[in-house]
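Appendix B. Worked example

We walk through a single record from start to finish. Start with the input: the chain for Protein DENND6B isoform X4, Camelus ferus, length 603.
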Amino acid sequence: MDAGPGAAPHPARGRPGAPSSATRAPGAPWARFSAWLECVCVVTFDLELGQALELVYPSDSRLTDKEVGPALWERTSPGEQALTRFPVFQKSSICYLSFPDSHSGCLGDTQFSFRIRQCGGQRHLWHPDDRHCDSGVPVSLQREPAHYFGYVYFRQVKDSSVKRGYFQKSLVLVSRLPFVRLFQALLSLIAPEYFDKLVPCLEAVCSEIDQWPDPMPGQTLNLPVMGVVLQVHIPSRADKPESSPPKQCGHENLLPAPVVLSSVHELDLFRCFQPVLAHVQMLWELMLLGEPLVVLAPSPAVSSEMVLALTSCLQPLKFCCDYRPYFTVHDSEFKEFTTRTQAPPNVVLGVTNPFFIKTLQHWPHILRIGEPRMSGDLPKQVKLKKPSRLKTLDTKPGLYTAYTAHLHRDKALLRRLLKGLQRERPSDLLSALLRRHLLELTQSFIIPLEHYMASLMPLQKSITPWKTPPQIRPFRQDDFLRSLEHSGPQLTCMLKGDWLGLYRRFFKSPHFDGWYRQRHKEMAQKLEALHLEAICEANIEIWMKDKSEVEVVDLVLKLRERLVRAQGHQLPVKEATLKRARLYIETVVRSLPTDLQVVLCSP
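Next comes the structure step. The output line below is what the pipeline stores for this chain.
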């Protein structure tokens, strides 16, 4: 299936047209489509060119062979601003990642996913709707400003009409949303139809997606496509962590009855983790500490699902390290990840080519998994093995690591899972049990950190209207560790072990840095909101009596700045407070001389 190291992918000719200008301005072409997808790609295998990009839809999506700049804000008319959508990624990355490599031997239909870095770095500017959606979803499901997800449906079947003897083609959905379950279901509907009817089918599907409502957090949406209605619930921060799917609703009058997805993003954890159930807790620790890990799997489907399952087991904590569900030797970051001149990066890497065993021998943790078992008893569990036993060729399944777990293994969990399997319990119930265990483990670890962080917040009574609010006190690791004796994870978790050692290593990980930055940002916003409320509750007319015009104008400008931030959902402020702030601004402006009023009221 590979074109070989020397053959570079090229765009195939004959790309059909599509409506241009994919801005998110209301009523603009493809505005709703871009809330869900960046573009749809079709990759084929050309005997002369290798993997070739046959089609990109809509056609204004920018795929380049060289790294170029990120999306830009473009002024469309006086007083109007819209975000022109320029998804920017390399054609070669899309082409190579959309096909299993020659070692996988995938026949028939295969689904998998990948994640690629945006060329030109992070897209800093977002449409306000995107920011509002992100502010309401759990942090682990927020859009990524510097990466895209690719969801692939690959077909390889014998075809005597093709010179090579095989029909080989991939349909790829490119999105910033980590909704793997939703996009897998969508591909299952549209890919088989597309392979039969080609472009007209794809155009119709994209037009239907362009009619979908925005993925607003907390809403249950009905998404029609190809005569089927997919019903999904968009997760919200207000949702309680539950293992059971949301109740079906709003489809009494729908014909046909909708296909209800229990989740837009959760994989079947039990199925993904079957070969490593005995080591799930150790893998959870490796993920928590942001350790470099290679997953060598027999196919892109197994590789990508294992990597996504591993990175999801920290929820509700955001996974702050890099991860690649499927990675090949042709990737533009191959040299960056495989260099021996520096320590391995904090990446979870999913691969299928055994060549990586030799290339990444210096990585501290390598998980080799074999062919998945379709049914029956629990698959043979991979064994813990020392890295020195790693062989370049014919490496047997195992978790090759010198790491020693800080926490004792929960043997009761494994017994419950095995008993459920023996009683032929549905896989989704066993997945729910496993997910709840990992959720409670993560929460037990994080709750003491949350409590200590909350104690660093200034008291509300110390916030006064006309003084700069007090600062959040610094996080002192030693103070936190001392607090664990009375408020540690032992209060909510039965597992014994070296919790202190685990916290000490966690402090050095990217996940602590990411968690702390996020919590500090939220607390600073809360502090700013409380200060705004204090100003709005004060008597502003008394304050103005002995103030100069400069001080009054400065207050107007600061209130306006906070009002803009609050309206952009960056400050947790009640609507009543916003109304009062607007009223205060009007009152203050009216007290100023006419010339200053003109300046402050000008657009």
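Two observations about the output. The longest helix spans residues 427-455. Residues 1-26, 66-86, 121-126 have pLDDT under 50 and may be disordered.
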